[in-house]
Amino acid sequence: MNAIPDEFEFHTSSACTYNNSDPRCVQVATNVVGRVAVRSSVTGQTVEFTTIEWTDFLTGAKLGEFDLLA
Questions:
Q1: Is residue 34 part of a domain?
Q2: What's the domain count of the chain?
Q3: DSSP for 11-69, written as a single string
Q4: In a domain, 30, yes or no
Q5: What sign does the CA torsion over 32, 38, 40, 46 have?
Q6: Is residue 43 part of a domain?
Q7: Boundaries of each DUF397 domain copy (predicted)?
Q8: Can you tell me the distance from the alpha carbon of 50 to that of 44, in angstroms, rounded to the nearest whole number?
Q9: Chain CA centroid to CA 19, Å
């Protein structure tokens, strides 16, 4: 895991149901050119991706490639 620079500005999705009894949300920063950082709101741990990796992931997610089976 890389050290995440201070220049990242993290945002939480409006779909997140963050509340004091269950504060688990994923936060994403896309303000640094060529890089995307993803952070856990609970642990603060972060993972960094290139914009190409992030775009490929989002494309797969929108196509349902990561949907959980019922």
A1: yes
A2: 1
A3: EE-TT---BTTB---EEEE--STTEEEEEETTT--EEEEEHHHHHHHHHHHHTTTTPPP
A4: yes
A5: negative
A6: yes
A7: 10-62
A8: 20
A9: 18
User: In angstroms, what CA-CA distances link 41 with 46, 49, 52, 56?
Assistant: 10, 18, 24, 23
Number of residues that make up the chain: 70
Which pLDDT tens digit goes with each residue over 34-65?
999 999 888 889 999 999 999 999 999 999 99
What residues contact residue 33 under an 8 Å CB cut-off, 6+ apart?
A: 51
**Cβ(13)–Cβ(26) under 8 Å?**
yes
List beta partners, residue 49: 36
The C-alpha angle 25, 23, 41, rounded to 5 degrees, equals 45
The reply to whether 5 falls in a domain is no
Structure tokens at 42: 């609970």
